[in-house]
Specification:
Blueprint lengths: L1 H14 L3 H15 L6 H17 L4 H15 L3 H17 L3 H15 L4 H17 L3 H17 L3 H17 L3 H18 L2 H18 L2
């Protein structure tokens, strides 16, 4: 289990973003969205970007801008925008470790959008997998990530595909499916090698080494 936790830490490190540059972007967007003469379509986009950016850093401002987004999107009968707002709220609650609330908003986002946005649907499934993992519901997490992998592959989102492959490697390692876990980590390594991403190649090799140590290959 300790090695599996090390694998998870490496996975989360891969997901980390540049919060400093994100702060600069949100500051400018906040000033812009306060203007009174904005077209509704532009305001809608800005509110979506703001609630998304704040959700990734676990800022309570997520709820402020997501609720504003829901109000405006409801007036326009824009279900996808409402779904995005609910999804961003779910991401926020996952970041602050309130997993049941996160799952509640994810289910509502999926119900409201009803498959109207493939990317959003894939992200919902992936974030559900992460929440179930945090709740130690390994089987549910595994099922969600397997579904999310199919969805992200269908829309060719290579960044999310890599994250999911890594998570599937971790989950299979935890469940003792070491050969399958190794297969997922090798898929990650191959993609990183094709990209010539030396730091990501190193992380994948570390994951493989830890897995082999755990499995005594």
């Amino acid at each position: 289990m300790r090695i599996a936790k090390l694998l998870l830490l490496l996975c989360l490190f891969c997901e980390s973003g540049n919060l400093l540059s994100q702060k600069v972007n949100t500051d400018s967007l906040e000033k812009l969205v306060q203007k009174n003469n904005l077209q509704d379509s532009i305001r809608l986009r800005l509110l979506t970007e703001l609630s998304s950016a704040f959700s990734k850093s676990g800022s309570a401002k997520t709820l402020l801008f997501a609720n504003k987004l829901i109000t405006l999107a409801t007036k326009q009968n824009n279900t996808v925008a409402i779904g995005n707002a609910l999804y961003n709220m779910a991401v926020y609650y996952e970041k602050v470790s309130i997993y049941d609330s996160s799952l509640y908003f994810l289910r509502n986002a999926r119900r409201i959008t009803n498959g109207a946005d493939q990317k959003l649907e894939a992200n919902i499934e992936e974030t559900m997998g992460l929440n179930y993992f945090r709740k130690s519901s390994t089987d549910s997490s595994l099922a969600c990530f397997e579904n999310a992998l199919k969805m992200q592959t269908a829309i060719h989102d290579s960044t999310h595909i890599l994250i999911i492959l890594n998570n599937l490697g971790i989950l299979n390692s935890i469940k003792g499916n070491n050969l399958k876990g190794q297969e997922y980590f090798l898929q990650c390594l191959k993609i990183h090698e094709n990209r010539k991403d030396s730091s990501a190649i190193a992380r994948s090799n570390i994951n493989l080494g830890l897995l082999m140590l755990k499995a005594k290959f």
